[in-house]
Amino acid sequence: MLTHLVHNGPKNHRSLILAGGGIRVAYQAGILKAMEEEGLTFDHVDGTSGGIFNAAMLASGLSVDQMIEKWRTLPIRHFASLARFRDYLRPWKLKGLGDADNIQQKVLPHFGVQLDTIKGLGLPITFSLCNFSNKTIQAVSAKEVDEKHLLAGVSLPILMPALKIGKDWFIDAVWIKDANLMEAVRMGAEEIWLAWGIGNYPTYFSGALHQYVHSIEMSANGALWEEFEQIQLINRAIERGDAVFGQRQPIKVFLIKPHFPLPLDPELFLETISNRDLINMGYQDAKNYFLKVSDAGEKLDILATQTRDTGDYLCFRLRFTGELEFKKKLDIVRYFVFLRFSFLGDQQQLEVFSSLYLGHYQKEFLAGIHEIKVKYLGSLTQLETITTLTIEGKEWLLIAKMSCKGPWYWLAGLDFKVSEITLRPKNEADSEMVLEGSLQQSFVSRLRCTWKALAKKQNGGRGGMRLKFNLIKKMMQHEV
């Protein structure tokens, strides 16, 4: 089944650019779902670096829902693949700290990437990678792509080796650019939609990992500013009526990004965050974007990708399960929640990202923008969220209530035992059956949410139990 996002039909002069972002590009799958619900379609897609994974799934004919499920069910360990042991004994000859074997043998097959299908469908999708032999960005079309192109395009320098294809060597394009907007321009795009996940954080952190990531941020953002300037020059030429551009309209750029920096790849391996959480974040960020987007697109300046200062913050996951009656039948229901609380001076922000699995449909539905209320009921703090789900093309209202007693209870795995949920059609005149009842969180899940919670300091360092205790205490006193 072909996705509704990409087509080979009449041109609408709209391109989708899937930028890099390591293995955090599950975030883009949530953006794609929001785009699909918004009715957007594209006559060109380009993937760079990690964005190649999503571009390859689209090129293989997967629907957005299928892509989301592929990301949810992917074991993160499949991204890790060590080189041969004897290679580490000769570091002066080491081609990379790891290799692409697991990506080739496990990740791409799990994603349903089929080269024969990609070439057969011939969708207008390109894959941008670095041709190291001539130090340029090369966009390879779906009809020309080889498996080695896909592997080389996600092979980060130092971490993975370059691959030789024909006479040339290829590797991840990250050091030149992490989003190839000019390929969209060459394809005739008058609207460019950019799914961006690379950080643009104002503070320079200590530590080798942070500084490696900073170097990626510098090259990725720096190249993007240059492409913005090129687009502005082209637009001025179009407005002057330069004959070389014919009847072309000025190019607009729309950019969907996280307002809060995404956790780094190691956090996925440490299970402090999951692909599900990233998908839900991407979906909610895109939903927020569509509420405020201007018809004129972005102001093409250096602030376009900037994220806010996080301060100290705490993130943790909750998973509630139970059987509830829905449409006169008892079915399994699962409620997945990711809480994020940040604290910077007198600025506090509590955010919720969630999704709901309904056994009636055998499907998990992404939750949109959350309205959050914190109530104090005697010794209990109650967290209430109100959000919307799109089910069978109709909007439903999801109300969830969770209670906690205090930081000591949370640390002992005794809080967030139950979630009271109500799901009903947003149109109150609709008489469809309402889903209502209690879902439970197991003790193991509650302990996991505490011990695997991600606590980070403003300086980028990881926080311990003391920081978790202080932040959960502040969260429970937070006024919304």
What features would you highlight for this structure?
alpha+beta; 480 residues; globular; 14 helices
In words, what does this structure look like?
This protein is globular. Helix 1 packs parallel to helix 11 (275-292). It has helices at residues 26-38, 51-59, 64-72, 85-88, 101-110, 115-121, 147-153, 181-186, 208-240, 265-269, 275-292, 407-411, 443-451, 465-476, and strands at 14-18, 44-48, 125-131, 136-141, 163-165, 168-171, 191-195, 252-256, 312-326, 329-344, 347-358, 363-366, 371-377, 380-391, 394-404, 418-425, 435-440, 454-456. The mean pLDDT is 91. With 480 residues, the chain is α+β, with helices and mostly antiparallel strands.
Number of helices: 14
Strand content: 25-35%
Query: What is the overall shape?
Result: globular
**Mean pLDDT across every amino acid position:** 91
The helix/strand class is alpha+beta
Largest sheet: 8 strands, mixed
What gap, in angstroms, lies between the N and C termini?
44 Å
User: Which segments are poorly predicted (pLDDT under 50) over 5 or more consecutive residues?
Assistant: none
> What is the number of E strands?
18
Radius of gyration: 23 Å
Q: Tell me roughly what share of residues is in helical segments.
A: 25-40%
